[in-house]
């Protein structure tokens, strides 16, 4: 029964904060600067069809992919230290080789070059 009351209190507190933040945010919605779009340093008063460098986008995607791979690799390194099995070590080596081949492919394709 106690957990029901605790849940009810948490629900009421969160609803109260929702209402307070909703009322405060409506007051600032009419501000022109806050409601105008701002994308990557472009002036929001110009046309939205301004071309941007596709290399910047490609490098950002490459960064996200390899950043995700590193996040997957860190727990694996900790597991290899605990388990010390050959199969786990071989799997980690194959994973690192796939990453290395991906970096070489991106380098060969020229995705890391900013100057043509």
TrEMBL record:
| Enzyme Commission number | 7.1.1.2
The record's keywords, sorted A to Z, are: Electron transport, Membrane, Mitochondrion, NAD, Respiratory chain, Translocase, Transmembrane, Transmembrane helix, Transport, Ubiquinone
Catalysed reactions, semicolon-separated: a ubiquinone + NADH + 5 H(+)(in) = a ubiquinol + NAD(+) + 4 H(+)(out)
Where the protein is mainly located, per its record?
membrane
- Signal peptide interval: none
Q: Which domain of life is it from?
A: Eukaryota
Its subcellular locations are: Membrane; Mitochondrion membrane
Topology in the lipid bilayer is annotated as: Multi-pass membrane protein
Question: One MF term in GO for this entry?
Answer: NADH dehydrogenase (ubiquinone) activity
Q: Which GO terms describe its cellular component?
A: mitochondrial membrane; NADH dehydrogenase complex
List where the protein spans the membrane. 6-24, 56-80, 86-108
Q: What does this protein do?
A: Core subunit of the mitochondrial membrane respiratory chain NADH dehydrogenase (Complex I) which catalyzes electron transfer from NADH through the respiratory chain, using ubiquinone as an electron acceptor. Essential for the catalytic activity of complex I.
**What does the similarity note say?**
Belongs to the complex I subunit 3 family.
Q: What is this protein called?
A: NADH-ubiquinone oxidoreductase chain 3
**What species is given as this protein's source?**
Loxocorone allax (Goblet worm)
